[in-house]
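Lecture 7 notes: from sequence to structure.

We start with a single chain of 492 residues. Read the sequence below before looking at the structure.
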Amino acid sequence: MARALILAAAAALAVACGPTSVEAQPAPAPPPPPPVFATSGNGDFDAWRDDFAARAVARGRNPAVLSQLLSGVAPDPRVIELDQRQPEFVSPVWDYVTNRVTETRIAGGRALRVEMGDTLPAVEARYGVPQGIILGVWGLESNYGQAALNWAPQTALATLAFEGRRRTQFEGYLLALVEMVERGLADQAELRSSWAGAMGQPQFMPDVYLTTAVDWDNDGHRDIWNNRGDVAASIGNYLADRGWRRGEPVFDEVRLPANFDYALADGTQRSVADWIDRGVRRMDGANWRAEERPLQAQLFLPAGARGPALLLHHNFAVIRRYNNSDRYALVVALLARAFEGRDGLVQAWPRDIGALNREQILELQTLLNSLGYNAGTPDGLFGSGTRRAVRGFQTDQAMPADGFPTLELLERVRTRAGVSSQEARTPQPLQRAGVRELQRLLNRLGYGAGSADGRIGARTRAAIRAFERAQGMEVRGRATDIVLEAARAAAA
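Now the structure, written as tokens:
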């Protein structure tokens, strides 16, 4: 009887508690509702946007934030135009430098340093990046916060991702922007950027903001749009994170010995001691300290054999991580010197040697390739491959092998290839952006080209003819690269 009662009680307990071998599982959470977007009026864009949003949700992004950011966004043709525009004229390095290392920019940096009081010295102490370098980057990127940021980054990034040339890259930026808003790091209303989606006064892309922006004043917001302390610290942190070496120089201007082999300016890193053994000396005559002699440096001739000669140190390459341009890094370093009251470069720029425009560089590349010097695919952009080809041609022609393209060099290449200058300079019609620039320049010069709308009407043609006549050019009334170059020169 007792045994029966025990068995009955056990059975009742089993019924009450359920099976003991399988634990009850909670019902799976329903998937988040997909983002909802209004049509943009562009079916192809909408198809890309919906696919991107689905992939973003699968990667954990919040559908509501995606809807919030991308609703009402349509591709901006102006963004695509700016991205695809390749200038027909590349300013000479001396113009690039002198147009940026200006008294106005120097005075602005000095004034900002005073206004910020102890902040910049404290940022330098934490990150090891000199105040002048931080101010130089700041001045170039946004004119110390004065530059207008006319785009919403979601529009700029979505447009460039949809355009497709660098889709993976810009979709990554857009995902980072969504994460910024999800985490409350920036309010959508304050998000402003350049046409390429670079944000705030230091011009950070969203992924850089996530990893590198700094909340200097600990107010809970990494405000690179309005907070000067956050801006300065974010720039300092970026450069420190990319390898800035505390206390090391950026570059030294040097004097080269007679009969120097300019082919050594090929980007090869050598110790300062090695350069000294080759006869290289500081321009100011000072000796390198013992601790500087092991430093690695490359020789840089920004304007060829007749221009300044610089030994570039490790920190020069770090500045290039901010903007991949030797010219940019040089300007930052020169601004830093100017803020401290130090002189710029001693050697004068060789302005008389001339500079090549994009069409001429394209011609140079084509001719060098035809002569067996591999300049790569002709694109009108003077990169390392073209520099090597130029250096090879110069060596074979017993010229100083500085790798620098000049009008004289182009003429020698033409002669070697059997091409006359007249044959080489066929005027090229301008695209719409070039026409707009020409119209603006003609208006500035007083020729009355009408509205700068990129359309070649009767008024624009009349202005071109009047300008050509005044310049002693052949009067054709056509919007070509040659007319644009002449207008740029006249306006300058």
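Strands lie at 251-255, 270-271, 281-282, 296-300, 309-312. Keep this in mind for problem set 3.
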